[in-house]
């Protein structure tokens, strides 16, 4: 990946509306960086929390969940019981331990689902109001998409710090 330019420098993504290109670029960049970071992490370090930081496993679970939840709200839907259960389990060691491969594949699928949703979004709907959470805090479709991209990239940065500490 060091030889490739960042996703946003590779040009427009086919099928993504122009106003949503930055969101799609950020999500694809996050996916590439997560895969690269996790490719060299020993499995035993997946749930370690160095110096009080969140574990790599938490970051990947959380990023996957954030995309799922925020893109659900962008569609004008409420979260399902399954999504709420997954939210309550983020950061906890699962009973059946996930592997790095399982977590990264799940994250990559969620990114792909998000890219598909972006490709199907009519730009005329971007300013439509959407409620967030049980309190239905007001946002918009574009606000949810933008926050999802920003939130994911922030966690990629935190994942980078955590994995560097863990690997010395």
SSE order and pairing:
Blueprint: H1 21-39, H2 56-74, H3 81-89, H4 100-119, E1 129-132, E2 137-140, H5 141-166
Antiparallel strand pairs: 1-2
Domain DinB-like: 27-159
Organism: Mucilaginibacter antarcticus
Protein name: DinB family protein
What would you note in describing this structure?
The chain has about 170 residues and is mainly α. The chain has one domain: Four Helix Bundle (Hemerythrin (Met), subunit A). About 55% of the residues lie in helices and about 5% in strands. The protein has five helices and two strands, in the order ααααββα. The protein has helices at about 20-40, 55-75, 80-90, 100-120, 140-165, and strands at about 130, 135-140. It has a two-stranded antiparallel sheet with strand order 1-2. Strand 1 and strand 2 form a beta hairpin. Helix 1 packs parallel to helix 5 and helix 2 runs parallel beside helix 4. It is globular, with a radius of gyration of 16 Å. The model has no long low-confidence stretch (mean pLDDT about 95).
């Amino acid at each position: 990946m060091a030889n490739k330019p960042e996703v946003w420098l590779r040009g427009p993504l086919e099928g993504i509306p122009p106003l949503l290109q930055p969101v799609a670029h950020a999500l694809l960049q996050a996916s590439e960086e997560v895969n690269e970071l996790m490719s060299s992490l020993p499995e035993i370090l997946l749930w370690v929390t160095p110096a009080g930081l969140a574990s790599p496993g938490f970051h990947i679970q959380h990023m996957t969940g954030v995309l799922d939840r925020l893109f659900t709200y962008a569609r004008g839907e409420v979260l399902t019981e399954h999504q709420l259960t997954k939210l309550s389990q983020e950061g906890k060691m699962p009973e059946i331990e996930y592997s790095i491969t399982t977590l990264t594949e799940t994250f990559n699928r969620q990114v792909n689902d998000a890219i598909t949703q972006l490709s199907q979004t009519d730009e005329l709907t971007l300013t439509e109001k959407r409620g967030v959470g049980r309190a239905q805090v007001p946002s918009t479709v574009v606000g949810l998409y933008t926050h999802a991209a920003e939130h994911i990239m922030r966690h990629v940065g935190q994942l980078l710090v955590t994995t560097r500490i863990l690997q010395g």
